[in-house]
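Support reply, case 0932

Customer input (verbatim):
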Amino acid sequence: MTGGPADPIPALEPRGPGHRFVIYGDACAGEPGGRHEATFARVNSVVRRFSPAPEFIVFPGDEIIGLTRDEAALRAQWRHWFEVEMAWLDRDRIPMFHNTANHTTYDPMSERVFAEVMGHLPRNGPPGQEGLSYFIRRGDLLMVFVHTLSGALGGEGHVETDWLDATLAAHADARHKLVVGHHPVFPVNGFEGPFQREIGPPHADTFWAILVRHGVLAYLCSHILAFDVQVHAGVLQVTTAGAGTAHRMPEGVEYLHAVQAALDAEGLRFRVVDDAGSVREALAWPPVLPPAADWPQMAAGAVGETRVAAGPLDASVRAWRIMGRTAPEATAAQTLVEGSSDDDAVPPLWIGLAGPDQRLLVVLGSAPGRSPHTWYGPSLALGGAFHIQIALHGAMGPGGLLWRWDEASPWSSLRGASAQGVERAAPVTRWTLGHTAVSATDRPFLGSELRVWTAHAPQGEI
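Our regenerated output:
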């Protein structure tokens, strides 16, 4: 979707009653003539073209470059951001909701300044975090904004959880629940580091368990310069940090962007629009698959050319239901399903088990001469029956390698360290079950009773 510099960009609309909003963050602006002023302006020029305009904007932090002990200089940055760079936004008509972040609330002085310049935000957070954490209720939508670098709890990567739990419980009647913070909980694009790149382990597991228990749909965050979406125990983690800080983005993979979002009774949808006004990625969640009982059983053999996905706008989902009995003891890699190509390159897709814990692995072949990328999931019990489902979602990037036990279980993204997902996989020309295409003795499945069913479900245009 492209057009002239003033052409309207159609907004993503809810399907019936719902909410239409925009998410973007990490501008690191606020300095006249500063390094990120022009890039932030390009993203803003795109957001201004969304038609109809969003009902509200979520900005998950790092509005300004900050990181100064000079309070007057910090306040000057905030004034420039609000009065110059964001002067185009009528905040009475389109409210903007902000998060604390590492460039803006890095010490007691900056926390105090943030609370003061954000005086328009509610003061309903936990004691000691007034103006730093808060919640917004808009009809059937609850949004809880958390302070993921609480100085009182230890600083960056530390977040309060008791108030979050109580707030979600008090608003159990909300049909849609979103939690917004600055730091991710799960690593993005292989960038991993507790307390600096994501919420630290004293809080992360408890934090996510609270989201799962209260039926939160998504955790919206930024911090890592990327657009990324993954799911864990049925809760989405959506990372969007493309509002202007471009110099540290992985070249050729990530890009400046803002996210159009629409929320309705059918779920949550996104369009990721770059600074030229083009849609680069799009997603509808949850995915729609036929009942597993209707999936045809899979047979090995040549299939012609099958693409798992044809790029980040291909929202197709390819899924497998795999049953069998594991070996009582094994350490070698064992093949469940392999998708190979006609050449001698590393196979585009390998699904199997490996190691003494018989851990689920999914391996995607890369470009010729490049190492494949590996994602991992749960371990399967030794010597027991198993039943698991694997799905590859073409519109979710590296978070689109999914697993669940069965239809009654929520989807989770497999863990990996790649910045790309199934959209990078080469076409498959032959499927093999229980061993690789090389031979029946190459990485064979050492258990028994292996059976596989498969489904392919296009998700439609978003």
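We compared this against your earlier run and they match. Two observations from our side: DSSP finds five helices and 26 strands in the chain. The first strand starts at residue 9 and ends at 10. Please reopen the case if you see a mismatch on your end.
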